[in-house]
What does this fold into?
Amino acid sequence: MNIKRGGIYLAALDPTVGKEIKKTRPVVIVSNNKNNEFSGTVTILPLTSKNLQKIYPFEIFLPEGSGSLPRDSKIKADQIRTLDKSRIITFIGKLSEEEIDQIEKAIKIHLSLS
It folds into this structure.
C-alpha cells in the first residue's frame, strides 16, 4: 500500500491502555512521505465522531464527505501515535491542503511548538 501524508486510512488501534482512542477507526497520516515510503511505521492522528459539540484548539472538525468520511468527525492531535504499517487496513480518502494546514497548527498547539 502506498501510504501518503494527509491520507485517511482505516487502522486497527487495539490494544490500547486507559483513555487512548481504541478499536478500528479512521486515522490521518501525519508522517512525511519519505518516512512513509521507507519506514515500517507511520505517524497518525485518530479520528472520532463522538463529542463533536466541543472542538478544542488541538482538534480539527471535518464535515461529512471531507476526505470521503461517512459522517462528521474530528481529528485528535492530542492522541498522536506511531503505528506499524501492518495496522493500516485500507485507504478511505485524502484531505485538502487547507485541512492539512489546520492539522499542523493543532499539532503545534498540542506540543507547544508555536
The mean pLDDT is 94. The first helix runs from residue 33 to 38.
